[in-house]
């Protein structure tokens, strides 16, 4: 098992990666993407689909790109992955955490195919991981929520209690409490990445509990739509959701996959498979906080911009001390910083998050 290799210099020049003088392959490179949901979800799969389309635009006929959508995180995923490999796809992107084991199993049977698994933590000779440090823009969103809340209650619609989701809940809460220590965050788990009905119900439950600022770690825009209907604010997740509910939308925490996919595709066309594991953040251009609502005070926008600059420069790290647990005990002392392995293993709530973490 390998953990992430952060490539700080990698993603700053993704789109500028030049094709060497060795020449392109005679035949187009076949690449396939496995999607958990539909590209029309407006969130997670939509963001990956934008990245795939960027590959088509940048490389044209040098790459044959295909997608399979609505693939459940079950044995069905392994069958789909194997089928894509058997049909001659040389590069396969599996775009959901729940595809990790299925990707690894299929990869053993197809050693000449390169597999790229999104958000997982296990890799192999021909299985490579890529992820986005979404906790960085989530922290910035928390600053906005902490400044603008009137109830001091934030709401979070969560999918599954895996480290990827838990650290985002914590980061959002830490950002809010950095400017407003009175803030608490309530969480409702929906046990699904994409279920608009459950997401909306969870959002309405949180609003009923007093939350006037909603965040999510799910794939649809249902949380934002519920916020608009109930007259509270919310943040978009994975892609820019500002057009869904312009008045309720405060900002969107976005994934940006296109430059990474283009880089991998260009290397593939050269016949030089990209094999590094990547975990990038705002510095590398793999995520961001976009489309800030004009209702956000200028002083808060300035505060967010300053913190973003500190994150990009490395002056500030979200997972640096002091960090306290729910009971007030110190998890990370001042001057200490979590390693990537620590960050990718978070299974606790920080101070300010209500309730118990599901097991």
Description:
- β6 (153-158), α5 and β7 form a beta-alpha-beta unit.
- This protein has two domains: 11-133 and 256-280, Rossmann fold (3-Layer(aba) Sandwich); 135-254 and 287-343, Response regulator (Rossmann fold, 3-Layer(aba) Sandwich), CATH 3.40.50.2300.
- It has helices at residues 44-59, 75-86, 100-109, 135-148, 163-177, 196-208, 222-230, 258-269, 298-313, 340-343, and strands at 29-34, 63-68, 91-94, 114-118, 127-132, 153-158, 184-189, 213-216, 233-238, 249-255, 278-280, 287-290, 323-324, 330-332.
- The chain contains ten helices and 14 strands.
- With 359 residues, the protein is an alpha/beta fold.
Percent helix, as a range, is 25-40%
Radius of gyration: 20 Å
CATH architecture of the largest domain: 3-Layer(aba) Sandwich
**Domain module count:** 2
What structural class is derived from the secondary structure elements?
alpha/beta
CATH superfamily of the largest domain: Response regulator
Largest sheet: 6 strands, parallel
Cα distance spanning the termini: 23 Å
Order of helices and strands: EHEHEHEEHEHEHEHEEHEEHEEH
Strand content: 15-25%
Record field, number of beta strands: 14
Biggest sheet strand line-up: 2-1-3-4-5-11
What CATH calls the topology of the largest domain is Rossmann fold
The CATH class of the largest domain: Alpha Beta
Shape estimate: globular
Given the structure, what is the number of helices? 10
The overall pLDDT, averaged over residues, is 93
Q: What are the low-pLDDT stretches, counting only 5+ consecutive residues below 50?
A: 1-25
